[in-house]
Structures are given as C-alpha cells and as structure tokens.
Amino acid sequence: MHIVVLIKQVPDTQEVKIDPEKNTIVRAGVESIVNPFDMNATELALQLREQYGGKVTVITMGPPQAAMALKETFSMGVDRVILLQDRGFAASDTLATSYVLAQGIKRLEADGEKVDLVICGKQAVDGDTAQTGPGVACRLGFDQVTYVTQVDKIDFNAKTVVARRRLAKGVQVVQAQLPALLTVEKDINEPRYATLRGIIAAERAKVDEWCAAEIKADTEQIGFKGSPTWVKRIFTPPPREGGPKFDGSDAVKKALDVVFDNQHFKEAVFGEEGVCKR
What we know:
With 278 residues, the protein is an alpha/beta fold. 29% of the residues lie in helices and 26% in strands.
C-alpha cells in the first residue's frame, strides 16, 4: 500500500502577530512548524503502514525552507519526502494549491508509484479553510472522507476503507472506495516523537524537488493567475467582554435567571416549538 501524506509548513500560531497597517501576518522572526493536524495525518499513515505494510510519501508545496518541515516527518519514519517548489506557486490560494498538490500526486503515479490512500490534516491552522484536502480529492477523482477520528479497516480485496468521521451531533461510519483521501482530526492519535536515529537520518535525507514543469502544471492554474480568492483584511478579534458577576446570598438565583433568559439556551433545550427536548 502506498500512502501519500500532504503537509503544510505554517507559522507557530502562538507567536503570530498582525501588522495593523498592512493587515497582514508578520512572518519575519516567527518560527515555522508543521501544521499540527498534518502531524496527526503523518502518524496515522505510519500506523497504517505498520499494520498493513507498504510505504509512506510526504508531499508539501512551499518555498525552499519548507524542506525543514519535510525532514521533521522523515525523522518520524516516513519513506520519502517531496517538495513542490517554484516561484510560480507563490500567492496560490486553496484552489491553486489543491491543483499543484494533485499534479504532484499524478506525477508520482506517472512514475509508476500507484497511490492507494492520501491523508492530510482537516485544515491548516494559518488559514482554517479546510478546503485543500477536499479540493485535491475532487481533482483526482478520489472518494473522500473528512473529519476522520478513526480508521476501522482497509480491505484490499474489496479495495475499500472504513473510517469514522465526526459530525456536529455524533459520529458517522463511512466506507469509501480506494483510492481515497482522508482528512483527520487532531484527536485521532498522538504523533510519535522522533528517535535519535530518525533525527540523524532526516539530516542526511534527500528531499526530492519538483518544479511546475516537472509536474506538468498549467501556469494559468497556479499562483496569482490561478487564484480567484483575495484576502482583503486580516485582523485580531476584539477582546472578549467579561460576563456579569454576582455575589451575595441570591447570587445563584441571579446567575440562573441570566442563563434561562438566554435565547440560545432556550432554543437548545426547548427548540423553536417550545417543547423540552431533555
């Protein structure tokens, strides 16, 4: 089985600052990390390799320094890492990014590296769109299962994967046809720590680099030209206002009065019909 993991190098969200004049993220001096959800995707791929055999390839699109993110996954034990790097990829939105990543996977298959499963985090913490993974699946014509919390079974005879995905109210068990793409939740696993041997191997690891021409990318579908989305403004949310405080012997009663007067609480408990659902 050949599993491809798609990762993204992102700014450490705990250190991100916003330029109030330009309304842009200040990346200078901010440490870059592997998108946390993608670390869970990498861990899942390694667990599936241990269970079913095969190999794991990790792909990212980004500038030359994104190779460091790839090497971090290599230190965890993946088999191959590929950087899709080209000046033409700059300013790509999720539509263009999904196209580039899909072209990278097509290049793998053109080289005889048949792909059975693609895994990525449910979203990137710097954009929170959750669009890239599904976009890749659509471009490849793969079945997709999003917000996965558990993979139950892979049946190679039937060429299916059974996974559980989180919904707003419960969990859904889904069977998808292989090849398929999964996007995973953070609580699906705990990413392993790299071993000393893995860290040394990662330092020596070869990072394959493919440019736009090498993945046969249409220049009209990448970068600025291929990105219909524009970010008009980035800003920090206003500080949250503190709630009311109560003291005295009737503090509990006053607090409960506020709760029961809340419209969201009424709808959650009684619904629009006013009938208690509990």
